Target: CPBP family intramembrane metalloprotease
Amino acid sequence: MSEPADGANPGAVPPSLPPERTGALVGRFLVDAAVAFVVLSAVGMVAGMAWAAWRAFQVVGQGPGPAPDAQAIAQALGQPGVLAQILMAVLGMSSAALLLYFWRRRADAGERARSRAAARRPSTWAWSLSIGLAVFAGSTLIGWLMRQAGVEPVPSNLPMVEEASQRWPLFLFVFAVVLAPAYEELLFRRVLFGRFLAAGRPWLGLVLSSLAFALVHEVPGLSGNPPLAVLQLWLVYAGMGAAFAWVYRRTGTLWSPIAAHALNNAVALYVHGLV
Model:
């Protein structure tokens, strides 16, 4: 998870290379996003089928007596539990991030060296700390302002997080503070935003990658939130994505947005009493 590192635009292409046209950049971004969507969907489908097969084996193998019919098996299968859902999410997103990184945006030795150099600078971690806390404060302020207007959305993943906090708090902490920041930053910042950064179009990349980040975290139609509440969640998530992209560009190492993302999640879990 290392990448270009120096200066205000650490990922710039070498001066000898012609600049890539905006249309071509957006096209490559859309291909990356489409590949990520397909991988997420395919991994989720395969994982769901594997879980269903395992549950069916458990149901059919339960003790003596007549074998259950197909309807009874379907009723007994139910839905994957919270732990299974989290594991499926980890597997899907990490698969998409790693595939796109190694296939489409792999760092070379020079980029990795510059990233390590950036990670050794104290200012890198000062920026990570500042952005992580600023993101949490900003999202909290937006939530408070919207509550004054009578809007209080429920994030799609909140029920899953609340149940996980009751049954598997340690696993929830590892997922939210270690795994999710790592694979999400690899995908959204290193791959999606990094393509624009390397081509000298950071602001366009910041907007597009942040919108993708928001849509993945709050998919339209998956919750009972009214449109204004969904817009609030998109604003919060897009703001988070933009802040993490900015600190990535500012510091020149992916470890910085990973740390900022992890800090934001850790503070949110603690403040809301989830760990």
About this structure: Residues 22-271 form one domain. The two ends are 27 Å apart (CA to CA).
